[in-house]
Amino acid sequence: MSEGDAAGRLVRPFTLTGGRTRPSRADFTLITSVTAVDPPPEGATRPQPEHSRILRLCAKPIVVAELAAELDLPVSVVVILLCDLLETGRITVRAPRLLSRTPDLDLLQKVRDGLGRL
What we know:
Helix content: 40-55%
Number of helices: 5
Distance between the termini: 45 Å
Radius of gyration: 19 Å
Structural class: mainly alpha
Order of helices and strands: HEHEHHEH
Strand content: 5-15%
Oligomer: single chain
C-alpha cells in the first residue's frame, strides 16, 4: 500500500460521514439486524452512493458487523450511515433477541466441573 492509499483510507470515512464521529442514535450493536424498506418511503430523496450500497446489501436482513465487513468500512462509520437511513425511513432495525434472561445453572455447573478437571 502506498502512502497515498493509506492517507486516502484515513480521509474517506471522515468524508462519508460528513465529518460526524458519533452516531445520532443508539439503536445499533454489532448484532443488530438491518433490513432495507422496500419500496422506499414516499418522498424519499435519492440516497448517496454509500447509502445505496448499504441498501443493496440490506435487501435481506444483515447484521451490522457483517455489513461493515462487506463494505470494508469501520463499524463506527457504518453505524453513522445507518442512522441516516433509519432517520429517513429507508431501513428497519431489529434488536437481537435475548435467548434467556436467567443463566442456565446446570450448564454453568457443567462448565465449572469441566474446568476443574483440566
